[in-house]
């Protein structure tokens, strides 16, 4: 189902996307007055871990441990595969934790929070730390002080816990954690002094994290399938085959983590997009010019009145035309004005 060449390409391209996003994030920080914060260092740490996991995937695909599902098991390859899985399941715990903590710390940077939000944010970050360390130690000491039992081929009689069960619960709690982190800023967004369209735009930026959530749900499905299906498969000749669900969880771990890094960095790149593309100013200028021309044409057709009363009517019409232009200008430039205000106030939003 997954070819070794495809796994090699994914193991290289996906981490590089994260590297690109993190590099742009640090570039934006260096070009603005906002200093690099702990949220930036957290996402950088996660990016380094994902690069290491991508390298493991490339090596495993090249040496035959991944991408050969439903082919006869080779003992040496099976042992190397168990070692690779052990390494990845340990590294991923801190990678997932760093990404979630980076997002929570980013919320603290941009929101001037109420006491209630601060308490919720602290509780969620504490739970994330406990969650990551708990599953890290569960994986490290899966077979007590003898992790080599995992790749010896005989874990049933060595007092080892079920690795699949640990991975299943980790995948479930990972999805729940993503939902909690994504939902955290919306009580503040609702209270912002903006219209519904602008609130939806801001919500859409934060909802980019649903890409990682979708990958996490997909990964959960493969882990659950791996847990429920028989662990040993045989062909017609009685040879033991590689499980058909071994490669997918490995791959979608890289997909989810890379998507999480990119989604966590995108909100920080708004100044770069405005500077390089100027899309908001271009659209605002076009809409303002079109509205001005339309209003000018309407005022040209206003009738001429004589006397004081008619002069008052003409003055009222002209005032309405000016107000319409002013409202159009505010409607088209409101987003950029608020963005400039955020930059001047230190990226803080009162909620």
Characteristic key phrases:
two-stranded antiparallel ribbon, two-stranded parallel ribbon, membrane, disordered C terminus, Rhopdopsin 7-helix transmembrane proteins, 351 residues, 12 helices, mainly alpha, 2% strand
The secondary-structure element order is: HHHEHHHHHEEHHHHE
Mean pLDDT reading:
74
Counted by DSSP, the helix tally is 12
What separation lies between the terminal Cα atoms?
49 Å
Give the oligomeric state.
single chain
**CATH topology grouping of the largest domain:** Rhopdopsin 7-helix transmembrane proteins
Number of domains: 2
From the spread of the alpha carbons, the general shape counts as: globular
How are the strands of the largest sheet arranged? 1-4
Domain Rhodopsin: 24-275
Transmembrane segments: 6-28, 40-60, 84-107, 119-142, 162-188, 200-222, 250-273
Biased composition (Basic and acidic residues): 340-351
Membrane topology: Multi-pass membrane protein
